[in-house]
Amino acid sequence: MGNIKNILFVGVGGQGTILASKIFTEGLMEYGYDVKMSEVHGMAQRGGSVVTQVRYGEKVYSPLIEKGTVDVIVSFEKIEAARWLDYLKEDGTIIVNDYEIRPVTVLIGGETYPENIINELMEKNIHLKTINAYETAKSIGNFKVQNSILLGALVRACDLEKINWSEIIKRNVNAKFFDLNSKAFNLGVNLK
Fold first, then answer.
1. pLDDT for residue 103 is more than 70
2. Following DSSP, what letter does each residue of 124-162 receive, concatenated?
3. Which CATH superfamily is domain 5-190 in?
4. Residue 2 in this model has a pLDDT that exceeds 60
5. 41 near 12, Cβ under 8 Å?
6. Are 16 and 74 in contact (CB under 8 A)?
7. Rounded CA gap, 14 and 169, in Å?
8. Most exposed: 73, 105, 144, 158, by fewest CB within 10 Å?
9. CA distance linking residue 73 with residue 27, whole number of Å
10. Poorest-pLDDT segment among 18-27, 34-43, 150-159
11. Which among 85, 76, 60 is positioned nearest to 20, based on CA atoms?
């Protein structure tokens, strides 16, 4: 438990980014890690960026992550991966949802959505795991569980499968959606 790990959750309002980071944080605390979490979701309800910083280890003194020190970025929307890339450390990992949410500025024609974001990320010297969480979530009945799929992929990337995630998910989601979220989480953990 010695080294501090820095995880950055980035997405767009309404994607469940904060819920995923809350579940992740709670699981880490139950396992005995010291955890600090900081979130920014200013315009999130209007489709704006949502960012949560999670730091965990034996002893963590600050919730804030400096540029160039993130171990894993979990990007719920692919343009957010590019936007936060400068926070990733040299041997860091990005888990990116190959999913687009076009901002209002693009929808009204003021800007264009960047093409080939995934290809540009692949050209960087980073560990990249691309997941189509939208299609995977849709295949099990509800596209809204993309966050649980991405959370599962993060848990695997951080080698944290030994934590009782099922119990933590159960405490944090509505009982009628527990089975669906649990299934989505397990799909994320088992994605190759």
1. no
2. SSSEEEEE-HHHHHHHTT-GGGHHHHHHHHHHHHTT-TT
3. Pyruvate-ferredoxin oxidoreductase, PFOR, domain III (3.40.920.10)
4. no
5. no
6. no
7. 18
8. 105
9. 18
10. 34-43
11. 76
Contact 16, 48 (CB under 8 A): no
Token duo for residue 151: 């959370």
Choose among 19, 32, 41: nearest CA to 172: 19
- In this prediction the pTM is 0.90
**What is the pLDDT of the chain when averaged over all its residues?**
89
Question: If we measure between CA atoms, which residue out of 53, 18, 19, 51 comes closest to residue 35?
Answer: 53
CB contact at 8 A, 23 and 188: no
- Residue spans of the domains in the chain: they are 5-190
Contact between residue 188 and residue 156 where contact means Cβ atoms under 8 Å apart: yes
**How far is residue 38's CA from residue 192's CA, in Å, rounded to a whole number?**
30
Pairing of strands 5-12, 34-40: unpaired
The amino acid at 92: G
